[in-house]
Amino acid sequence: MSDSFLGAIIVSIATGALFLSVQTAEKAFRNAGKYPPTKYELQLLREAGYSSDESINLLITDLDSYSTKYSNK
Known about the structure:
- This protein is mostly helical.
- It has two domains: 32 residues; 41 residues.
- 71% of the residues lie in helices and 0% in strands.
- The protein is rod-shaped and about 75 Å long.
């Protein structure tokens, strides 16, 4: 009787740990490839004529809105 109760507790803990690890992995995949522009990239933008903060913020907003998933059609 106590063995089955202990087994049920172990299964519950293992299931919770598995769920948590899958959730963490999915979050990592969703956030993959989303990094802010580096100082070098910002310098290139300024040299290309995008020197105002408004234009740089617009570009950053556009980059954030793009999908990071690759679709093979």
